[in-house]
Amino acid sequence: MSGRTRLHPLTVGTIALSFHRGTAAVVRRVLEACGHPVSVVEAPHEELFRRQATGEIDLLVSAWLPSSHEKYLTGHRDEVTVLAPHYEPYCVWTVPPYVPATEVAAVSDLARPDVAERMTHVIDGINPGAGISRFSARVVADYGLDRVGYRFAPGDEAGFIARVERGVARREWFVIPLWRPQYLNRRHGLRPLAEPKGLLGTVDAAGPVVRRDVIERIHPEALARLAALKPGNEGVEDLDVLINVDGLTPLQAADRYLAARPHLLPRTHPSN
Fold this sequence. Notes:
With 272 residues, the chain is an alpha/beta fold. It folds into 2 domains: 4-88 and 204-264, Periplasmic binding protein-like II (D-Maltodextrin-Binding Protein, domain 2, 3-Layer(aba) Sandwich); 90-192, D-Maltodextrin-Binding Protein, domain 2. The protein has 11 helices and 10 strands. The protein has a 5-stranded mixed sheet with strand order 2-1-3-10-4. Strand 1, helix 1 (18-33) and strand 2 form a beta-alpha-beta unit. Helix 1 (18-33) crosses helix 10 (232-244) and helix 10 crosses helix 11. The protein is elongated. The model has no long low-confidence stretch (mean pLDDT 93).
């Protein structure tokens, strides 16, 4: 493909969480390899969708549909196109593996007096606009956990991760709202709890969202290669591990991921 560097510049928006940053970095590298200059902005969930609606962001990585993010597309759904999904995320509540499954197997078990007496009552989460945060606040109320002392406390990613690390180090009994893909699943073997009421949403499809007034300016090869990106939950967790455990930047993680999968990029592309 000739004249790649003269293609339309694109602004990619990423949700401000590490696994989203890793996925967005892979998308960025694909676009750059096809000749698009790319700039990146990040913001919390709800704000990022608002910024795309105002035209500040061309391509958003990624929308979890339908459960987590559909409400954020409501006002401008006819102005965007959702591309093919890259992975299939879902939300869970988890406990550390040393909490016996014979005692805590389901969310409802948290309300039993013997369990509530041992369990840490503050349920830490990420920012309030995340689907898992909205869902978790509803779970606390619907299961009556607030009546036995539990409360959901949204926060930021750093505090959320620190809480898990601290709790595991101290072998606390605690429950943490989580999702796949996320590297803490692998790092600590956190065990999902049964939640039969379905308050944590469904398995979503996570794909990039492109403004329709921009999509025709994206080179067809770039769109085809974005459609071919299928890292799945395992691949996104691989990226998240590279960032959080190995200490790579999102772009370094993306470069390592793509180096092992050269078929995802054009045969010739600009060096970055």
